Structures are given as structure tokens and as C-alpha cells.
Amino acid sequence: MKTQQFFLSVTQKLIEWRQHYKELRHQFYVFDKNETDKHQTLSLARSTKKTVKREHRVYTVVLSCLNGKRSPVIFAIAVLSLTGVLGQKLYNQPQLQIGAIAPQTIRAPEEARIEDKKKTEEQRKAASTSSAPVLMVNPQINEEIYQNLQQILSEGNSIRSSLGAFPFFDTFILSVSTQRYLRSCSHWEWQALLIAVNNNKKHKQGLSHKEHRNLGTEDLKANNLFQNPDFAQAVQELETYHLSTSDQNLSSLIAQIIKVRQGYAQANTKLSDLIGAKPETVYEAVSLLDISDDDWAKTQAGIQQTARKILTQGIPSGLPPYIIKDAVTLHVQTIVPKETEPLAIGLLLAVLKPNLQTDKLRTQLIAARAAAGVKPVMVTVRKGELIVRRGEKITAFDFEVLEHYHLIRREINWQRLIQVGIAVTAAVSFFALLERRSRCKLRQSDRLLILLLTLSTPLAIVLGTPHTTWSAVGLLLGSFYGPRLGIAVIGLLSILLPISLDISKASLLAGTAAGILGSCMAQKLHSREELALLSVAIALTQGGVYLVLRLLLSAALGVFPYYTVIQNAVLFALSSLAWSIVALGLSPYLEKLFDLVTSIRLSELANPNRPLLKKLATETPGTFQHTLLVATLAEAAAKSLKCNVELVRAGALYHDIGKMHDPMAFIENQMGEPNKHDTEIKDPWKSAEVIKKHVSEGLVMARKHSLPSLIQAFIPEHQGTTQIAYFYHQAQQMVQADPSLTVDEADFRYEGPIPQSRETGIVMLADSCEAALRSLKEVSPEQALVMLNNILRAKWQDKQLEASGLTREEMSQIAEIFVQVWQQFHHKRIAYPKSK
After folding, report:
1. Are 523 and 482 spatial neighbours (Cβ–Cβ below 8 Å)?
2. Residue 137: in which H helix or E strand, if any?
3. What is the pLDDT of residues 325-377, one digit of tens each?
4. Cα separation of 350 and 252, whole Å?
5. Residues with Cβ within 8 Å of residue 152, at least 6 apart in sequence
């Protein structure tokens, strides 16, 4: 603020000296004077001209410093500080390097014990490699094995579902082996068995001649079949049952056997179809259909129990198949029936496979412990012992010995440092060029803040942490200066950091992505809550980009350290969130310290509950209503012209706070009371001073309440150097009545400066048009537009907007917008009928 006052004083003084110089020149050429007077006047004019030139140089320097067009000091500080941080490893580099030729013969100055780091590292590496890997059960493989096992057992159950119960008859009458034979024997064997049973019946008279003939043929076959013990046993057991029961019961048994045989045939067909579809099925080698229901249930339970035991113990890769077979056989022998052992063994061998994998984390921990247990290899170097001979290459151990004795001649690597400096200079120059072309006009304090934020990122890397301040820098730069400058800083940093600092590509790209996201989105948000959500998004972006890049790199190298990669990605995300929280906490303090405004701070300043605005509404209600309408007009115009709407609204709300020093001096606060200027002051010169004082008093109030300088600029610039026309005309009328009086127009003009930005120019126009729009009653929009165009044209002709950046075309657009807003406030209403 002091700088701004100095700038205004220098400007005013320059104007006064120039006016004095013009008057002297006019006096010299116009008035008829003697030679002495002419000579004195000419000398005074020349002296005044020198003073004007000197004041003009001061004015130019101050103006260039304020506008930021000349900033060699900041430029030099930026180049030196960035070069110093980025090139910190280049200040103390050893002159002698491993593999270099020794310039002279060097001997040990004293005896010492020195660690041979190379041998120590080799022994530790050998210890780490020789440590046995730690195995762990892979639950996914176990689940796959259990699913395959369950599928095979389900197929067996599906096939056996057609068989029905087995044994299907009383085993005291028909043995299990006989029932198995009756169920599975061929058709002609079954027919022969029936004939054999019928031959022994007491009543054969019922047979026809043809049946007797067929019976004789089948008898011959039956005689041959009696050599089959299963056939003979079946016939014997059926005859025995026939002797002890009736013919009806025997017929019922035979019918039951026929039904069982049909089910067996269906099951056999299903088994054949399964073997045809899956030749590798385990049911091919061992019959599934000849097992009793009880044995099949025991076999299933035994198979599942054996699988759980073996998988719990684990099957390592590379285990010979016979070892797995022996282990399965030992387990199966004790828990499944004897006759189903082959089926159980074959089924288990079909599904079992290695389920052990290396536990990389525990293996690394054990390897690290083994390596840590290796003691350093110490070598005793005697006094005067030869370290390296002239002309020989310096080995790694020679370098360690020289380093121990401080015989490594360290120096600054000027060549690399100059290269870093050139790269930094190019980057800073590019940023300066981008700044000049951008709409954001930076002050020296802004450049200093950008430099400090930029330095935070390499400083964090120099301190040894990969979790640097990308997210904080992106958030703050985006909030304060917009996405363009923020992305430029982040992009230039991503180019400069790898030049001389050790940073992984994954962390560099992840940090760059987080910083760019913060720069792009921060200025668009209007609340702390939205910024907090943006911080979470930035953290997820940084962690996600790092995770993807590391996984892609690991896949390309054929290494898959998933646990480590995920852990590092989570750390990157958490660090990004932490830096974002730090940025959000620092933002209000930086705004105060560096006199900055953000959309959030502008929204807070525009809150009508702010103390200054509440006081304005209470003490000057008319001015407050005028302020609200000006803010509405200016906000609509700023939105249409794509200006900073939040800045326009906040600036418009505070532009007339100086009227609180004397509210009744302004007509909008008089509320029908007598005009103070007509009843008390009665002097247009004093009235003009009172009116102009609302600018200076407004600046005092703004400084007292710590308003940002961008908001303070609206107080003088909304009036510019316009004329206080009402009292100027009064003064002219008084001069006409009293010729002894003189009128200086400067006494009836505001001190300025004229609007220096589009935003303050819009507020000036809104302030000029508000009273005119308020006075309009029954006029058409076209008439209102003509009147506003006349007002704006007068401002343009008075050169009040030549420094604002507004164009003549935009003036017409602003007038149309003001009329639209006026129509919204003064729309027609329905005339309601009067009540009786």
C-alpha cells in the first residue's frame, strides 16, 4: 500500500511539473516582455524541463517496478537459488574417481583399519543368496484344486444317481458279489440264469413246445456257464431263495433285478459318454459302478480329507511325481475301503498340484538378516604402505582408503554446474515470456512466492524423501495464479529435476500428474470443502499413476513385487494428501502475507455478514442499496465478458465504503431530509472536497480492515479522474455572478487513478449508470439503451477507460447487459383489483 501511495504521489508531482513547464513556455512565447524577463523565463523553463525529465525517470522506474516489467533482481535470485538447490551434489565432487589414473604415487600417512566395502558387500550378498526361501501356501491354487475335486465327485454322483440303492436286496439271501453280478452280467447270461432257475421248478407243464425247444438250447449254454463261479453262485442262491419262498416272491425279485439292470445300463451309458467327452477322466481306469453306496460315501469323505491334509502340508514345485503318489497312498490306505483305494488314488493324483510359492517379503527379511549378520571386512593399512602407484588405475578399495585419509581432492564441478545453470536460466526465461503473454500481471511479491513454492519440491528431494510437494505446489499456484502458470511451473520442474537430482521416473510422472490436476482445478472451486475433495482426488491420482507405472515397469522386467509396489503407491497417495492438507492450511496465511486473492477469499469478502459490509448497511442504507445494484450490474457484465466475476462482485460491494465518513453528504442516504450541501455547506468547492473525500476515507477504512490491494483498487479507480459535474456547474454559475472568483476544473475532478483493469472499468460504468437506471420509470428498453450509450460514450471520450483494456465494442455490449438487468428489476406487475 505504501508503494501504491508513492506511485500516486510521483504521478501527481509529475503532472504538476509538466503543467508548470507548459505555463512557462506559454508565458515566454505569448506575452510581450523585455529581454531580461524573457531570459529569466527561459532559464526557469529550462530548469523546470530538467526537473521534469528527472521526475519522469523516477516515475518510469517506479511504474516499471510496480507493473513487474523489469525484474532483473528476482530473475537473478530465481536462477541462482534454483541452480544452487538443483546442483547441490556438484559442490563437493572428488577429483579422483574410481577407474581414473593416479597422478602420483600415494602412501598411507598413518596406520588405520579400513573397511573393504566391496568384499563386505560380496559376503553379504552371498549370505543373502544362500538363505533358504520362505514358502507359503497359495490360497488361490488350493481353491482351484478344491473346485476341480468337487467337480469330479459331482460327476461321479451324477452317474451313480441312475443306479439306485446298492445292495438292492437282503445280503443274507443274495450276497453282495451275487447282486453285483446280477446287475452287471450280459443279457444272454441273464437269460440263461433265468432258464436255469426255471428248470428247477416243480411245475414245468406250462411251457409250450417252442419254449421247450429253446430251453434245450439254453440248457447247453447254461451247462457251459456253470463253469463261471459267479453264475453258479447266483443260480444256487436264487434256487435256495425259491425253495424257501413262493413263486410270487421269486417273480417279484426277478422283476426288481430287471429294474436294477436297466438302471445299471443307463449309468454305464453315462459313464461311456463322460469318457468320450473327457478321455482324461479318472473314472476310466477304475469302475465307478461296482461300488456300494456306503463305500462310495466313505471314499468321497476320505478323498476330501486326504486332499486337505496334503494341501495343508503343501506341495512344492519340482517335487517328483512318485513322492506325491506315495504320500497319497499312505493317507488313503487308512481312511477308504480297500477295493476303492485305486479309485481314490487316481482321483487325487489327477487334481493335486504344487500349491507352495515363495513368500517374497519374509524371504527378503531373512536374507536381510543374514546379510546384516555378516561383519564388515576390515583391512589394516600400515603407515607408509603404498595405496596407489602413479599411472595405475584407482580401484574401489583404493578410493575408499584415499577417502579415509582425506586424500581425495574435492572440487566444484563447474562444467556440470554451468550446464544446470543454463537449463535453469532457459526455464526461468520461458516462464517470464509466458508471464508476459498471460493475463495474470505478477508483482515482485508474486514472483517471490512462486519461487519459494518452486524451491520446495527440489528441497524435499535433496533432504532424501521421494514424497515431495507436487500436490501442494499445484494447489497453491492454481488457486493464486490460475492453471496456466501453475501447469508451466509443474512442467518446467518435471524437466529440470532429472537433470541433476536422483528421482525415479515413476515418482516424477506421478507427482507431475498430481500437480497438474491441482493447478487445473483449484481456481474453479469456491469453497474449502471442494478443495478438500480435490485433495483426495489429487492423492488418488498420484498413488494410482505411480502404481500403474510401477506395475508396467515390473511386467516389462519380468519382476512382480506386488506387495512392495502397492505399499509404495499407498505411501505416495498419503503423502500427497498430507501435502495438500498443508497447502490448505497455509493458504489463508499466504493470502494475507503476499496480499493475494482467491475465489474462496473473494466469496468470503462478499459475505454481507462481514463487519465492514454490516456497518455499511446499518449506517448508510441508501449507499448499501446502491452498492447492491452496482454489484448486480457489474457482475452480469463481468460474466458476459469472461472477467473475474468474484473479484468484480467483491470490489463493487466495497467501492463506496468511504461514504460512511459522512453519510448525509450523499443524496441516497438523505431519505427526504434537506440536502446538506444546500443548507449547511453552500460552497461548491467544499462540497466537492467532501464528495472526493469518500475515496481517501474509503482507502483508510480498507487498510484498517486489511482488504486486499485488488479490492482497494476499486475505491479510487471506480471514480477515476471524472468530473464532479453538479458542483462544477454550481461553481461556474457563481463565477458568472461574481467575476472575482476563478474556477479550476482540477478542483472538481477525482484524483484517480483511472481504471487499470477490466474489472474496475466495469464497476466504474455500473456506478455511472446505476443512478440513471434507477431514475427511469415509464421508458422503453430502447430509450434506456440510448441513454446508457450516451453515458458510456461520455466516459470513453473523457479517456477514463483507456488503461482498463475494455474496447469500444464491449462498451455497447455492457450497455445492453445493463438494460437487461434493469428490465429484470423493473418488470411490469399485474394490477390487482381493489377490495370492496
Report:
1. yes
2. strand 135-137
3. 888 888 888 888 887 888 888 888 888 888 888 888 888 888 888 888 888 88
4. 43
5. 281, 282, 347, 350, 351
Q: Which residues contact 174 (CB under 8 A, 6 or more apart)?
A: 167, 182, 234, 237, 238, 241
CA quadruple 297, 302, 305, 311: dihedral, nearest 10: -130
Amino acid (one-letter) located at 604: E
> Rg of the chain over CA atoms, in angstroms?
51
Alpha-carbon distance 205 to 203, whole Å? Answer: 6
Q: Are 163 and 180 in contact (CB under 8 A)?
A: no
Note the maximum CA span of the chain: 180
Q: Which residues pair with 107 in a beta bridge?
A: 386
pLDDT, tens digit, 9 for 90 and up, residues 96-115 = 677 778 777 888 888 888 88
pLDDT 10s digits, 792-809: 998 898 888 888 889 888
State the distance between the two ends of the chain, measured CA to CA, in whole angstroms.
65
Helix (H) or strand (E) holding 771: helix 758-775
| The model scores a pTM over 0.85 | no
Closest CA to 308 of 86, 133, 68, 137: 137
The band of 397, judged by pLDDT with boundaries at 50, 70 and 90, is confident
**3-state SS assignment for residue 175:** coil
What gap in Å lies between CA 523 and CA 478, rounded to an integer? 6
Give per-residue pLDDT as tens, 585-629: 999 999 989 988 888 889 889 988 899 999 998 988 888 898 999
How many helices and strands (H and E) does the chain possess? 34, 8
Give the integer Cα–Cα distance in Å for 519 and 513. 10
Q: Which amino acid is at 345?
A: I
Residue type, 299: T
Which residues, 6+ apart, have CB-to-CB distance to 646 below 8 Å? 526, 599, 602, 603, 606
- Chain centroid to CA 95: how far? 44
Pick the closest to residue 654 from 691, 628, 619, 688 (CA basis): 628
Q: Helix %, strand %, coil % for the chain, to 5?
A: 70, 5, 25
pLDDT at 830: 53
Residue 520, C-alpha cell as written in the block:
487445473
Sole residue written with cell 453262485: 233
460-516 pLDDT, tens digit per residue, is: 988 888 788 999 999 999 999 889 999 999 999 999 998 888 888 889 999 999 999
- Phi and psi for 669 in degrees, rounded to 5? -100, 0
The residue whose grid cell reads 438494460 is 819
Q: What are phi and psi of 135, to 5 degrees?
A: -100, 155
pLDDT for the residue numbered 292 = 76
Task: Check: CB of residue 249 under 8 Å from CB of residue 199.
Answer: no
Question: What CA–CA distance (Å, rounded) separates 599 from 602?
Answer: 5
Instruction: Lowest mean pLDDT of 116-130, 167-181, 427-441, name the range.
Output: 167-181
**Cα 468 from Cα 800, distance rounded (Å):** 48
Task: Classify residue 792 by burial, with Cβ atoms within 10 Å: 0-12, 13-18, 19+.
Answer: buried
Residue type present at position 635: E
Task: Please enumerate in sequence order all residues whose Cβ is within 8 A of that of 556, keeping only pairs 6 or more positions apart, or say none.
Answer: none
Beta-bridge partners for 101: 393
Residues 623/659, Cβ–Cβ less than 8 Å: yes
